[in-house]
Amino acid sequence: MRVKNYKSVGILMFLVLMSFYSFGQNVQVKGTINDENGQPIPGAAVLVKGTTTGTAADLDGNFTISASPENTLQFSFIGYKTHEVKVGNQSTITVSLDPDVSDLDEIVVVGYGSVKKSQLTGAISSVSSKDITDQPITDARQALQGRSSGVDVTSPGSKPGASPQVRIRGRRSFNASNEPLYVVDGIPTVGGISDINPNDITSMEILKDASATAIYGSRGANGVVLVTTKRGKSGKTEVSINSYYGFNKSLGTIQVFDGPGFAEYKRESRRATGNYPEGPATAAADEALFEPVELDGIAQGRTTDYVDQLLRTGIIQNQQVSVSGGNEKTQFFVSGGFFQDKGVVKSQDYTRYNFRANIDHKINDKVRFGTSTLISYSERNGENFNPIGGAMQENPLGKAYDEEGNLIFLPTSDGLRTNPLAEIVPGANIDLTKRYRIFNSVYGEWKIVKGLTYRVNFGPDITIDRNGRFTGSQTNARRGGDPTGSIDENFIFNYTLENVITYERSIADDHNLKFTGLQSIQKDNLEETMLNVQGIPAESQSYNRLGDASQITLANTYLEQWSLLSFMGRLNYDYKGKILVTGTVRADGSSKFGANNKFAYFPSVAVGWNITDEPFFKSNKTFDQLKLRVSYGSIGNQAIDPYQTQALLGRTTYAYDNTPAFGYGPNTIGNPDLRWETSTTFNAGLDFSLVAGRISGSMEYYITTTKDLLAPQPLPNSTGFSGYTTNIGETQNRGIELTINTTNIDNGNFTWTTDFIFNRNREEILSLPNGDDITNGRFVGQALTVFYDYKKIGIWQTDQKDLANSFEDEVGEIRVEDYNGDGQINADDRQILGSAVPDFVMGMTNRFNYKNFDFSFFIYGRFGSMIRSRFHDQFNSLFGRYNNLAVDYWTPDNPTNEFPRPNQNQESPKYASSMSYFDGSFIKVRNINIGYNFDKSIASKLGMSSLRVYSSIQQPFIFSSYRSKHQGIDPEVYLDGEQGAGAGEVNANISPAVTSFTFGINAKF
């Protein structure tokens, strides 16, 4: 029996609980706690309800506790339902606890329906609202990081409003999108979920294998994230207030030379060319090299830290009020929210306002309808603006302000570098994006007859983006020239209309069938208007009167439309809940493809076996659940831009009878045979629960092979075209995933739980039409993107002069590996150095509860990846003109192998890119949270039903060799290039990583 398996655990819990034993003032109540079979439960907890007085049952299940007749005793143990007994005049109480199988009965959203967790056949992970709201986040996708196996989420830096990049089980495609599909309240979205307040979300389910995602066909090619928002419940109207306020501090900055360090670096760049005397610096030599302001800086020991003056203490806050409730016919949830993130870099911030109304109404026992409405407005400053890079290059010997405190636009005579602080003068640089979003999910449901239900879903989605940019005359981009301005406005209207029919039937109580049929249409319309000008007469106009400008440099409009027609059928069958079968067939027709290939068909099948329900397993005393799952299926990808099957025209200029004129000619090559990418996945999974739910989790193994990849192929320039889009090659992802949830300690006063995830994904190109494609950086047997470059093996030293010369190098320069051993360095010596794809990813959350206190911390790590730090080549020119990273460079007296000798004759060191590759492994402490829940008696005196106050620290520590050894800040990078950062790159467009300190309150009335 299960109780025998708990004895060792019970002994430990008994000892711990006894330390919290307390004596009351009234009667001693004794008794025994048994399981459903009448066997004692050692270590079971007994708690006087509403107090912290508790004890634990001994090895025979016996207990003694002090309580008054008015008290109620709560009896609990892991894996059993809590049982309550009023003391009254009883002095002896014997109770039997019933097994709690709620984890197995938990309902999981699977798309177009839901099932019990024990009946799942696909690979699905869940993230709860607790995980989402544990940390102050801008975007709910950030909560997926390290909390769901198989999901790789990256959020480099701290630029306000930046979206995390999500990849589920690796990347499949070269050119088509690798972003998963987001389905909000049943409606697939095109606009993403960045506009949704994370506090409005109940849960997120991640569908990973073909069986789980096939119901969404081509839209689910890269996995699916189902987002379920909060809804009202019948009963008392409840008002909730969730509020936090905090501040951000930079975790550091990339270090550049201070004033004295820059002066010596500049001298050394001249010594290398014989333009400065060897040996210690002299006043005469300095006077010939430095300009007056630099000499003054040297004499004063001045260091102007421009980067520091661009940074500030950031502020982050979130305020939300929600009201929910209802009766038997109508339930509602209404919320309003305000979020603001003022970044640590001046002129960067993000503000969002949200309103949500979720309403469900039952007309009668057969018909009900409802709606989920989101209205969002946001403003983002600095999306395309970051002055940090320019500040790092500015001469630290210069002066930012004169004696009267006025900004000096040219701190030195170098006309290519202006004062970085001029970039943040109010009105000098404006980069403001305003975003309006209205997203609806409207449904109607009709129970036609018993077991047969019809549902219609309609989801209109309207987004208006308006980016306005202005660059004033007194900026580094204009350097006294005419101001420029631009407007880029997008109007996006997307809608989804779905007809869903569901039929359920049981045969002889042993055979259960459920059929789901779907017909769906999705249409998307994008209209874009762009206008760029130069010569704005008054800078106060910014970009608001572009018609007054002296020159229009760009004026264009753009229309893009596409549609998707889909049909789907899914059949679920189970035999006594033991044997589970799910079969799905989906047909998708996309307007993005030519007439020959518009439709594609994607089947899948999954089988599950609940082993613990078999008679031969009934004698098992360890497992509460043991379920084996196997699935196989195909899904497609059509996430390319429209019109790539067609030959398009472009405007050109020509001379007509010596008169300039415009004409139109072929601009792209069409490909009417362009067809769907197809990914086929095999998945094997094992779900388990043991020791009465004390340990539970899942293991997954998968292989996904993707064929007919959509990608551009280059053409010879003689054709007049650079290339065309076609289907090429084959890729594969294979990996393992592990999720473990444990309850380490659980008694009346203290609980400790741990959630752990691990995933390893191997991403590989299996074939290319012509073998390795060096031009596009694609190599058979490697990840989809790799770093292909020369490998730095040191610096040429004095005693290697002859060998260096044989490679046409000089002492003090970078030494790279002669990869092919032919005695010379050329393009053939480039090699694959590594990839940003990690070997494995892990995440661990620990939660502790002691009486009214709760404490948690979350750790996340990526291991075995390589990153490219563009700081180490773009800001490491060692040219002696601009400031430089504070690196350990080579000199005759400092024969280091780290970085080459500065040289004024080289704008960049030979093989400079080889200096920029580093190990990208890291461990981050993502979140530490401590809270206190006030007793209900205290909360009620304040007019509340519950009250919690808390404080949290986000990302206090980053452990990484890139940070500790190489003066970097944050090695977290995007896998694919986007948002101003290349694939696997750290660059100056990414704002510094920060530590956030927040203080919050959760109150319910």
UniProtKB/TrEMBL annotation:
Which Pfam families does this entry report, sorted A to Z?
A: CarbopepD_reg_2, Plug, TonB_dep_Rec_b-barrel
* Compartment annotation: Cell outer membrane
A cellular-component GO term for this protein: cell outer membrane
* UniProt key word Acetylation: no
In which domain of life is the source organism classified? Bacteria
| UniProt-listed PROSITE patterns | TONB_DEPENDENT_REC_3
Identify the residues that the record assigns to the TonB-dependent receptor-like beta-barrel domain, covering every copy.
446-824
Q: Which UniProt keywords apply?
A: Cell outer membrane, Membrane, Signal, TonB box, Transmembrane, Transmembrane beta strand, Transport
Segments forming domain TonB-dependent receptor plug: 117-224
Membrane-related topology note? Multi-pass membrane protein
Chain coiled-coil ranges: none
- From the UniProt annotation, give the residues forming the signal peptide: 1-24
Q: Which SUPFAM superfamilies does this UniProt record tie to the protein?
A: Carboxypeptidase regulatory domain-like (SSF49464), Porins (SSF56935)
| Biased segments, Polar residues type | 145-157
The segment annotated Disordered runs over 144-165
- The family this protein is said to belong to: Belongs to the TonB-dependent receptor family.
> Know the name of this protein?
SusC/RagA family TonB-linked outer membrane protein
The organism encoding this protein is Echinicola pacifica
